[in-house]
């Protein structure tokens, strides 16, 4: 297994990271039914990079993402998002942080069918009572190939176009980080490739930090970096890898 992953992030890398975990642990259940989902995990995600998290089922990859995004809380340790320690925030503060500083792209598109593409993209800003940056919206939609689809409702869009709308929605608030949870899981291979290429482009050209959980080596190959997990721990990482290289590493984990 590739031994490149440090088990403890250096202070300088943590302070410069878009998001970082310091010795976080997470368990579910009690006594004989306890499941240790995360075991003393320390890792940092540099700003402007596209990272994939992979591992066998039950390895802790989704739990790690949920804790990093403030969707779940760690039992111990610290999580820093843009320099903010989120582990001590209450529910209301976490809600504001997710709304203002985090973007999400899920396997399901989560679009409201009665709204147009543009209205779906701008909905989080509208709900927060904010003002949409029209120039930024236009730039995002042009890059994502949505400029001529903004008046269409979800049922008038292909699956790939619907997921592009979800990506645009995530980008609109210029978040510290975008989290993707199997974002191409409901797409055919061509549409999936288009969305992954757009995520990579948003990282390379817009400086957007992206963290994606996936089981697909092809999807992970679009990332700058692949982090490997097993039994709740980080066990290795790969840089700019091919699907075959990733698949080989996963096979050593029994995935």
Automatic annotation (TrEMBL):
The keyword Coiled coil appears for this protein: no
Keyword terms of this UniProt record: ATP-binding, Nucleotide-binding, Transport
Signal peptide per UniProt: none
Domain of life from the UniProt record: Bacteria
Gene Ontology MF terms: ATP binding
Residue ranges occupied by any ABC transporter domain in the UniProt entry: 19-255
Pfam families: ABC_tran
Membrane-spanning parts: none
SMART domains noted in UniProt: AAA (SM00382)
Protein name: ABC transporter ATP-binding protein
Species for this entry: Arthrobacter vasquezii
Lineage of the organism: Bacteria, Bacillati, Actinomycetota, Actinomycetes, Micrococcales
């Amino acid at each position: 297994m590739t031994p490149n992953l440090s088990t403890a992030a250096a202070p300088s890398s943590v302070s410069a990271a878009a998001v970082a975990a310091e010795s976080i642990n997470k368990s579910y259940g009690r006594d004989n039914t306890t499941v240790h989902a995360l075991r003393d995990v320390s890792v940092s995600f540099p700003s402007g990079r596209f990272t994939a998290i992979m591992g066998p089922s039950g390895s802790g990859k989704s739990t790690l993402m949920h804790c990093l995004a403030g969707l779940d809380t760690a039992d111990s340790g610290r999580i820093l998002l843009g320099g903010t320690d989120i582990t001590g925030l209450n529910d209301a503060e976490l809600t504001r942080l997710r709304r203002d500083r985090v973007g999400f792209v899920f396997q399901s598109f989560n679009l409201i069918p009665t709204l147009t593409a543009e209205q779906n993209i701008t909905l989080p800003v509208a709900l927060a009572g904010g003002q949409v940056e029209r120039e930024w919206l236009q730039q995002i939609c042009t890059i994502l190939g949505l400029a001529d689809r903004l008046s269409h409702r979800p049922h008038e869009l292909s699956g790939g176009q619907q997921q592009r709308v979800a990506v645009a929605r995530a980008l609109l608030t210029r978040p510290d980080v975008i989290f993707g949870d199997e974002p191409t899981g409901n797409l055919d291979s061509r549409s999936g490739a288009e969305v992954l290429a757009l995520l990579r482009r948003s990282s390379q050209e817009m400086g957007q930090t992206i963290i994606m959980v996936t089981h697909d080596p092809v999807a992970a190959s679009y990332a700058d970096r692949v982090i490997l997990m097993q039994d709740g721990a980080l066990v290795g990482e790969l840089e700019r890898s091919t699907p075959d290289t990733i698949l080989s590493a996963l096979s050593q984990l029994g995935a």
